[in-house]
Design a protein that fits this description.
2 domains, 26% strand, Rossmann fold, four-stranded antiparallel sheet
Length: 219
């Protein structure tokens, strides 16, 4: 599904942040991405989401060479990848429902064609009774679940989550993890970037450890 071959990245003339990164994200797989602060986890996620170009090496996504993608092709491929950002990026002037539906509105779909899908997904993540409130009223955990629902509404083939449990208490972190596990069972490949070793111990999944710009993989 996604393949990195000897990928390197540097900003300007500075040293390489990532060096000789090689790995694959198979369909329906589950993996954790970990490492110390500043190791480059978020940078690696941005490469996976196609918002950065590597300085060298080959990235293949859904059978296409990243370096040969046109500007028109990028948005189409990004729709196949869902992303949960650390800062949620919810729009405060839109309700929970409107935030989750936004990717579909941007694509020009009529609300009548997606209303039931958005409502069902919000119920699934436990926000059925909070769909008509604005983000400032939501708790941190509710905002996190809203961000997850928005990432899932287009039924991505890959989900990238950057520290998705970093701002919630342990019980909610476990609940969110169960949500990711269920998504994976339904066929979505999941990549979770996290510092939480306890979280990783709850799932028998591949671990990708990023340190000093290099990646070690433990199956």
């Amino acid at each position: 599904m996604i393949r990195f071959e000897n990928v390197g990245l540097r900003y300007g003339m500075g040293p390489e942040i990532l060096r000789d990164i090689s790995f694959e994200i198979p369909p329906s797989s589950f993996q954790f991405l970990s490492g110390p602060s500043g190791a480059g986890k978020t940078t690696l996620l941005r490469l996976l989401f196609l918002s950065l170009k590597p300085t060298r090496g080959l990235i293949t996504i859904f059978g296409k060479d990243r370096s040969r993608l046109s500007r028109k092709e990028l948005p189409m491929l990004r729709r196949r990848v869902g992303v949960v950002f650390q800062d949620f990026r919810l729009l405060d002037h839109m309700t929970t429902y409107e935030n989750v539906a936004l990717p579909l509105r941007v694509r020009g779909r009529e609300e009548s064609s997606y209303r039931s899908d958005v409502t069902e997904l919000l119920k699934w993540v436990g926000l059925g009774e909070r769909m008509h409130v604005l983000p400032p009223v939501l708790s941190g955990g509710e905002k996190q679940r809203a961000a997850i629902a928005r990432a899932l509404i287009e039924q991505p083939e890959v989900l990238l989550a950057d520290e998705p449990t970093g701002n919630v208490d342990p019980p909610l972190a476990r609940r969110l993890l169960r949500l990711f596990i269920e998504l994976n069972r339904l066929g979505t490949a999941v990549v979770i970037a996290t510092h939480d070793l306890g979280l990783m111990e709850q799932v028998d999944a591949r671990r990708m450890i990023l340190s000093n710009g290099r990646l070690d993989i433990y199956d």
